[in-house]
Design brief:
5-stranded antiparallel β-sheet; Helix Hairpins; 5-stranded mixed β-sheet; 10 helices; alpha+beta; 3 domains; 449 residues; Heat Shock Protein 90; Beta-Lactamase
Amino acid sequence: MRRGSIAVRITALCLAVAGVVAVVAGLISAQLVVTTAREVTRQTLSDQADVVAGQLADSRIGLRRVVEVLGGQGVEVVQVRPNGTLISSTPAAESAAREAGITEITAPAHKTVEVGGRTLLVELRPADTRGAIALVRETETAKGTGRKLVGNVMVALSIGLVAATLAGLVLARLLSRPLRRTAAVAASMSHGRRDLRAPVDGPREVAEVAASVNTLADALQRSEGRQRDFLLSVSHELRTPLTAVKGFAESLADGVVTGDAVPAAGRTIDQEATRLDRLVSDLLDLARLGADDFRLDVIAVDLPVLVSETATVWSARCAAAGVRFSVDSAVAPVTVMADPRRLRQVLDGLAENALRATPAGRPIVLALSVEPGTAVLQVRDGGPGLAPEEYPVAFERGVLNARYSGTRPVGTGIGLALVHGLVARMGGRIDAGPAPEGGAAFTVRFPLR
C-alpha cells in the first residue's frame, strides 16, 4: 500500500490546523462582533430615546422635526397620546411598538421584537403629559457588520492557509532530511554495508532514530564478526577429524596399512567419526533450541543418581588424562523436574569443557548441594580460569574461542552455548564464576520438586 510522505502529511496537518483555527476564531469573532454591534445599537437608541422623551416633556415641540432627524439615521418614532391615539411613520414601527407594550408603558424599557421576519429594537419612554414614545430600529447594522466580518475572516483564512502551507513545507523538509539520510543508511545496511553511520542531528526524536540505527549497525557488525569467527572455528574442528578419517581410509584403500595395523586404523576412524557425529549433533541441537518443536521429556529426576552415573564415566576419562576427579554430592534424594537425557548432556558438556582446560595433576569437582527451594549442580576445575569480565559472556558462541585460540586448549564455543540453551529451556539457570580450585566454576540451579 502506497503511503504519503512525511512532508505531505506535515503540510496537510499544518493546513488543517490553520483552517480549523481560522474558522473557529472567525465564528467566535463574528458572534462577538454581532452581539457587540447589537448592544452598541441598543445603547445608542436608548440615548436617543432619552433625548426625545426629555424634549417632548419640556416643550411643545412636535414630532415632525424629530422624525426627520432620526429617520435619516434609520430610526422610526412612534408616539401614543394621552387619549390613546397612536402616531407612527410606518405600519411596521407601529406594530413593533404595540407588541413591545407602548400603551401600557410607565417606565423606561427596551424590547426586541420580530415583525414580518425582521428583528427590531424598541426603546420605550413615558413623556409625562405627552403620553409615551417608542424608537424603533432594525438590527441590520449589526448584521451588516457580521457579513463584513465573515468576509474578513475568509481573507484571513486564505492568508493563513498560504502561510501554513509554506511553514509546513519548510518544517517537513527540516524533519524529513535527517530521516531520509537515516533511511539511506538502513538501506545500505540491508545490502551488506556495515561501515556507514547515520548523522545524529535534527529534533530529539529524529536523532534518537538515527542513534538507534547506528547502535543496530554496531551490534550487527559485532554479531557478524563473532559469527565469522565461530564458523572458522567450527570449520577447523570439522576439518581435523575429517582429515584423519580421509587419510586412514585412503591408506586402507591403497593397501598402505595392512596386517596388524588395520584394527588400529579402524579404531582411529571410528573415534574421529564419533567426534564428528558429536560435533554435528551439538550444532543441530543448538540450531533447534529456539524452535517450538524442540522436544523435552520432563519427568522427576533424582539428581544424586544422575551425578553418580556421570561420575562413573568422567572419573575414568579424567584418570586417563592425569586429572584428579572427585564428587561432592548430597546423600538424601534431591528431585527436580527436568529431561534426564538433556540434563546429562549438560553435565557432560560442562565436564568436557573442564577437562579440556584442566592440566594434568589439577582437580575437577562434580558437586551437588541444596539451597532453600533450589538444587545446585556445579562443575569446578583447577584450570587457568577466566578474566572477571569474561564470565558474563562465557556462554556466547565463539567468544572464548576467539579470545584464547592459540594460547590454550579451547573448543568451538558450541558446547557452552548449547548447555546454556538447554538449561534455560528446562526452566533452570546457569552462571559462570571463579572456582575455589583456582579455575572456573559453572553452576546450574533448578527449583526443587
